[in-house]
Write a structure and sequence with these properties.
By secondary structure, this protein is α/β, with parallel strands linked by helices. Helices cover about 25% and strands about 25% of the residues. The chain has 14 helices and 30 strands.
Amino acid sequence: MTKSKAQKITKAKGRPFLNWVGKRGIEVIDGFPAQLAETFDPAKEINGKNWTNLIFYGDNKEVCGHLLEKHRGKVDLIYIDPPFDSKADYIRKVELRGLKGKKVEGEGQSAIEQVQYEDLWSNDEYLQFMFERLMLLSELLSPTGSIYLHCDWHQSHHLRCLMDEVFGSGNFVSEIAWCYRFYEHSKTSWNKKHDNLFLYSKNKDRHTFNWENVALELEKSSYDKFKHKDKNERRFCIRGKNIKESPVKQMVNLPLDSEKKYPNLTYRQYMDEIIGVKPRDWFLADILVQGNPEILNYPTQKPEKLLERIISASSNPGDLILDLFAGSGTTAAVAQKLGRRWIICDINHGAIQTSSKRLQKIIQNQIAEPPQLEKTEKENKPAALNFQIQRVNNYDLQIQHNEALELAIEKMGVERTPKDGFFDGLLGEKLVKIIPLQRAATIADLSAIEREIHDFRSEETRNIEIVALGAETDTKTWIAEMNQKNKPSGFNQYYLTDLRETGFFEHKNDEAKISFQNKNSKITISIDDFHSPTIIERLGIENKKSDIKASIPDFRSQIDCVSIDFNFDGKDFKIDFSDIPEKKKDLISGKYEFDTKNCGKKIAVKIIDMLGEEVLAILET
């Protein structure tokens, strides 16, 4: 196993300082190696170009540790849309393909609600989480780079202080209000109609800012008219004077040599003179609602227009863009369209799959319809027509962590307590603390519980149930010692439920029946049947062939997309072909034909179901 490489982290030096229980900076972080999971390279660039776009699946703290080895001080623009601490569950509504509006047995609809993530934190946990990641992002930011932090009223006051501390208050550039129109329900208070964007730079005097790209939100057709630049980088166009006899017509797109040909009949008109108004620190852009073609049914998805403003203003073509909370992949999608390089990361498997499908379509469209560029224009041609998906620290659960969390809580009978800022619920008379399921419980987790009881709940007498997916070996010793210490009072006894030991994660994998023929220099692959036990269970359908067939007449309704690697090496899955239906009502083809010359000895077929679970079939040719 490859060892991690420790990366030193610079101490935060800014002011003011915000304190909380358990505050600690990062002095060193392990740079874990990444494992290549998938490659999408339809233009066959990766071996011929020096850049490959990256999607990381894993904890973004550990991803930062990995990135520091090669990208410290090289990221030109960071945009993050982290959890808002909204005390809400973010749900993705999953509908089977081709069954919209049709009844199925069980719940009576073809929709399943799937938790993408829970935005439930204690205040101390949230602040520590953000503090650590901001420190790491500061190390990755280039000398002329900028960072935009997207938040709302829940934690904006705390986050502004954290950014002052990490980046220095002198490097604060702007607070931007993104205003949007949506339903106004409240009659007892001001309706909340904006989010906040905090913009900080690594160096306030040197950061990139292309104001003309966002001034007054010019339509592209208007902006394109000002295609010339003087020595001071001011945009202008050549106008003809309004003289009837003039051989020069009154227009705004004359070539530059018109000045020499008709010196008395032309003049320069500068864009900033016409606009008159520079970019403001607020703008209006509607949030995404059903019916918008951008909608991917991913909660918290942001409109591309928002990211277009940020990326256009604070980066240049070819610059490197980073987003640690990728979600539906909007940052990468816009960066790809605007000719920037990009790296994104998410710990949610559904986010990785959504982003991958979205970016495959964009890149395929760019290959099919390359942009028509003029020499005088900024070239927004793609910086790369590829990406790889890499895992850091090997997150290998078969189902999403948050989905697993909900199932665990339901089976254990935990009563959720969303108003409690620290504990997650009650199990009978016991307080319940759930350790994030992507890692094992540690001594630090247990110590945080003890500090909460000792410092803020000194009158608390109830026992504590800790729920975790695995636990480090020394945690049981700590629990035994703490229980012995508290035994005389009979209060605050600790109990540990290890979900790995309870058999909770017995999981039935998807099943696929796939056949293929190798005939007349053609290979035909056919998906003949597919079955997702999880989907069937969630819809409340009896797990019998007759009942499933009656409820879901076409098995393809359960399948979201199909990818094929023509020459699978057993490790890196290369997406040589993908079948991603365009609309919700569309089904995968299920039958595919290829030339034998394009295929190797092993063909891998990856099927992803509507809940994001995957099945991989290997075909020997």
